[in-house]
Request: fold
Amino acid sequence: MPAVQETIDQVRQIDVDQYKYGFETKIEMDKAPKGLNEDIIRLISSKKNEPEWMLEWRLQAYRRWLTMEEPSWARVRYPKIDFNDIHYYAAPKSMSGPKSLDEVDPELLKVYEKLGIPLREQEILAGVEKSKIAVDAVFDSVSVVTTFKEELKKAGVIFMSISEAMREHPDLVRKYLGTVVPQSDNFYATLNSAVFTDGSFVYVPKGVRCPMELSTYFRINEKNTGQFERTLIIADEGAYVSYLEGCTAPQRDENQLHAAVVELIALDDAEIKYSTVQNWYPGDKHGKGGVYNFVTKRGDCRGKNSKISWTQVETGSAITWKYPSCILRGDGSRGEFYSIAVSNGHQQVDSGTKMIHLGKNTSSRIISKGIAAGVSDNTYRGQVSAHRKAENARNFTQCDSLLIGDKCGAHTVPYIEAKNSTAQFEHEATTSKISEDQLFYCLQRGIPEEAAIALIVNGFVKEVIQELPMEFAVEAQKLIGISLEGSVG
Amino acid sequence: MNMQQAIKMTAAETALVDAYGAQIGDLPGDGAVLSLRDTLVHELRTAGLPTRRIESWHYTDLRTLLRDVPAADPSAFADRVEAIVPGSSVLSVRNGQADLKSVPEGIKARSYTDSLVDGSAAAGLAILGADDAIGRINGGLVRGGLEIAIAEGAEFAAPIEIQVVQSHGQAHTRFPVSFGAGSKATVIERHVSTSAEASFVSTVSDVTLGEGADVIWIVVQQQGPADTHLGQIRFDLAKDAKLHIFVINAGGKLVRQELHGRASGEGADLTLRGINLLGGESHTDVTFTLTHAVPHTTSSEIIRNVIFDRARGVFQGKILVAKDAQKTDAKMACNTLLLSDEADMSAKPELEIFADDVQCGHGATVADIDHTQLFYMLARGIPEKKARAMLVNAFVAEIVEELEDDEALVEALEGVISAWLEKHA
Reply:
């Protein structure tokens, strides 16, 4: 069925021309010269005061990267990226590493105020309705400030920028870095391994339930810079953590590159919940500018009965190339993926997930909703596989897409691979998610059809929205506010 | 990507190129056909057989899976066998030579060899899909087949059976078949092997339906346990044409059955039903693409796979809805019973959609026999082996029954299925 008017209006509201976070901040920056070579990597490493092994690791990745080819299998088209025309390091001059809030340049704080990101602990505490969220604010290549560090420390939780962690907890970083997304994983992940500048590090010790939501807010500001952050989250036995990620960038005519790597590790009985509201600048309505978002996100359910859940709301970026995945290694582990991807204007989205069932009695669930409008292309690409020994692997996948207008495209490319007869895989992408029964029920009670559809569909989107932590759910709902009637499978 | 540098040829690639070399003076064709053959074989030689790096061959790495190719042997062809549905008109191809003894009224049939010789086949041979290894192998080596034209408005009391029977060696056939406007027919394309010796078969059917034609096209593939079968069906549907394709794969060691089609006229309707029975160490791949090119077309696909032993099943299905092809209604399902822990199944049901007012959906399931169903039967005193056989049979028989208008046909197809299940289950 065609999209209802309400949906069309709501999508228009989040059209590319309505990008609210496109302002630019003039801050004196300390930049590495453009280009990529071993000297730049040495420079990044020394700026970060990194240990020697880290520099070696980066150089190894860089040499590997030189031999790799840019992948071309995704359904995205873009002009060739000149990797030597990018600044790989840019930090506000006033920053030489994260400090206490009082020392941070007020200009920078204003940026976050404008973005609505609470950084002042007192203010957050004073606020009545707002619950506590610890924030790591990353501005171009550096972490500006991390809030609530002390309080988290009391609970034993380590939450800091990854460069800081490398200095303060080198053993932990060394033990886990690159164990989920190896250096040689793919073109962009390898590039990231060589040049990543900052990102967040989280370690939740045994049996600890992290007392508050953790969050990182990424902002690309400087012209011609790439942002390469690396996030590493470890939940030790029986631990629980919920982590949120947000991102924005100024409106610029040229494209900016963002190639992040996120690694999650859940040990026995641990649970990690990772939520993203991705709102990078998508380019203008003629397809000019916007962020190229090439991200490798992967979670490793390493322990028994561990659980990793990805929730993403994707509205930004000119190009999204992103497949948050779960390796279900531990027996009884569980992976979840909930996604809403909205594309408009000239945006191109190729996103999805991988659920790799290796252990026994593992289960996974994929719920993906794609909405394409304008002249955009929206692709779901997902893989579900059961290894020979993955007894009783169970997967349920549902992916629906909706097209608004006749110039956009929606595509579904699922790969289903079962090597075990006890595996039970179900993949469905049904035509209309609105059951006739439900619709009839509403109509019979005098609710007009359009309102009935909106009602049912809103309840349906909640499946994904409700997976988000409350604070984010509100933001996401505002961002999307779309009724999905799932007209295309 | 341009990968023209010479590759190291595998034994199978060498055998195919050599087969061409050995027959070069003997293969039928005029100048245009012969030079086309040369190009196709040259492309095969330089690019090699497709590997898993080529997306459409991802699960069937032909270069690795095709270990050897038996030599061509003109004496390998067997006599025609009994028609699968009694009373059918049988047209057969033997060692490239068409047997046109029983051509029913309303059909114009001629040997495809003649079309190669007079060059009229050149245009069809030149049509290749993307990464079309089957089109290349077949185009290079094809010796014969049948060119069939069904008259406008023709109707037939009995099915038309196209038979390719052989005991070993190679067979490369082509069947351009056009159905006139308003015609109505059932065609059975049958590939049978009479011995356990290895044979290598490539076959391309090019099926075009005129306005309002109503056709049932059945493929019964009963190759031997050591055989390689590379089949391709291309189809094009004009306005209001209705095509029901039914494929049964009940044989072969390495099977790739491609179906590529296009709904070109409004009101066109395609139904695809596939039953793949896999056992032993066989590998069966069904790859399907359909383009809904104009508004108001419909399609429905159901593939059922039953996989025993160490067999590997593959289904790739892609429905493409072109821009402006509004009101398309397309449904695709692939259901698999995986009956052994050493078996495996890979499915990739794709949708590629550029129109907004459409109804498209797909579903895929992979599972073992439902234990509650099995328990129900065991509780009623049915022995486990029998209960399993009944459930497997029910799983596939369901879609055969859709052909209920032709009882003899349903019976014949059920016979193929139960014969296979008796042997393997």
